[in-house]
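Structure tokens please, single chain.
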Amino acid sequence: MNATTGTGFQYVWYRDGSVISGATNGSYTATQAGAYTVRVISGACYTNSSAITVSITTSGTAGITPVGSTSFCTGGNVVLNASTGSSYQWKKDGNAISGATSSSYTATTSGTYTVTVSNGSCSATSSGVSVSASSGPSANITAPNGTTFCSGGSAILNATTGTGFHVWYRDGSVISGATNGSYTATQAGAYTVRVISGACYTNSSAITVSITTSGTASITPVGSTSFCTGGNVVLNASTGSSYQWKKDGNAISGATSSSYTATTSGTYTVTVSNGSCSATSSGVSVSASSGPSANITAPNGTTFCSGGSAILNATTGTGFQYVWYRDGSVISGATNGSYTATQAGAYTVRVIGWSMLLNSSAITVSITTSGTASITPVGSTSFCTGGNVVLNASTKLFLPMEEGWQHHQWCNQQLYRNHFGNVHGNSKQRFMFCDIQRCWRECIQWPKCQHHRS
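Here you go.
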């Protein structure tokens, strides 16, 4: 408020009839409502002005209400609503935004926003609201080992790294639990990843993963896989573009063709490749063994009397089969490990086992002719007590009892107890007459009997 001015004038200001302390200038700034007057003094004279009433209009307050988050990704926005007024002026970072004079403002960039709200001649400015518009994270997928793999394989997919969260998708569907920066794909499909950082996220472009069928690998033996040492079996692999044979899990140097000739025992496999894919076969067991032995033993000897026999035993073993031969001809029905020979000849046996066969050396069986036994009396066989008759035997076997014949008890006790000859020379030396045929049937194995045969 300004009073009348003039040279040498003095002033005293009043509010509601009371002197305002210190208000002695020609101008006064009123900050309170009331009736203001001024006394103008010039020399010994003064004049009081009429009163002027000052009133204060309440302007209220100014505030901003965001509709949604004030942090968003680049390209997003937030609506800011001002409190009620008659006019508005929006500002960003203290600078008036041209044309922003409505009660709401859509903020699209980062900054501190305020609004001045006017009510008549009064206005109020709000506190600042901070808005953050962040650029979203990059979202890309790389596959360091490629996106095509063989059946049973996988492809490693790596998302853009950095602070954030990941959600993986296959063919547009969320993959449960796949929230890491890397994902191992085992199925074909179109894979994407959403990278989330703060309030922002970015979806990657799709990367396609495909699976190549590798087929199967197998081995077909050409013949038996069990053979004698020195033999072999050809192993053929299923069709492929390349091969690697292994024995007992170890690669066989140079064995890279579709077939392999196995000559030693072991478990053989083959890895068959078709392009970038490969498959390994099941193992085939090969057995190369030295084979069974083929020998014949005769526990009771190979020579016997007419009507007797010789037991011939072949080498035994689990699962062995036998074929007996006499003089090179198969003996019909002789297929056991033991054979009782009743005819003279050269006997052999073929032993079959472990998918192989061996022929024994020949063993010769012979038959000794025993002839006949008879007694020829020398004189009458009827005589008086005290007389005698000499009895002469046919071809004899003389066995001095003190040289060991007593060891053949059956012959001694059963056959010859009624066949005694004359006593010659020393009366203590006694001889027996043996029935040659029956003797040889029972005691051909006794060297004494053989030694004294005559």
